[in-house]
Design goal:
Helices cover 33% and strands 15% of the residues. It is an alpha+beta fold and 156 residues long. The protein is elongated, with a radius of gyration of 15 Å.
Length: 156
């Protein structure tokens, strides 16, 4: 099938099987290796992308589901050579260690900040709940999102 969708702001045309997993399409066919595969069962969030601005797990999506939609991967977040402010906040807050969960965490956080620019710690925790981190722990990740949102410890 010929698949048309927007990928990281660019109109994209790909020929692929409609039942190809999106994680495989992105990583293997399109070279977007920021999308990680870990569990392959939708339980870890390493393969997260934004589909029309909503976090989705690419290991559970089929290529045909992308038709006519907008996909954002970690590679497209900054839109250039410089990191996105959210990526910078993750680095400054020490919320990155091995980096495997980071793309999914950043994209989930980006989606949260788009709909709630001043989230509480609880709202951040809920937004990233589908993303597992075994290295950094969630406190630094929550701190990073708050930093990106311009919130201090005094802000609730």
């Amino acid at each position: 099938m010929i698949l048309h969708f927007t990928l990281n702001g660019q109109a994209t045309r790909v020929e692929c099987d409609p039942d190809r997993r999106v994680v495989d399409l992105l990583r293997q066919d399109l070279g977007l290796t920021g999308v990680k595969e870990a569990c392959g069962a939708g339980e870890c969030g390493a393969c997260a992308i934004l589909l029309d601005g909503v976090p989705r797990l690419s290991c559970l999506l089929l290529a045909a589901q992308l038709a006519g939609h907008e996909v954002l991967t970690i590679e497209g977040l900054a839109g250039g050579e410089a990191p996105h402010p959210l990526q910078e906040a993750f680095a400054r807050a020490g919320a990155v260690q091995c980096g495997f969960c980071t793309p999914g965490m950043v994209l989930a956080s980006h989606a949260l900040l788009a709909r709630q620019p001043r989230p509480s710690r609880q709202e951040i925790a809920q937004a990233i709940a589908g993303n597992l981190c075994r290295c950094t722990g969630y406190h630094k990740i929550i701190d990073a999102v708050r930093l990106a949102a311009g919130l201090s410890e005094d802000d609730s």
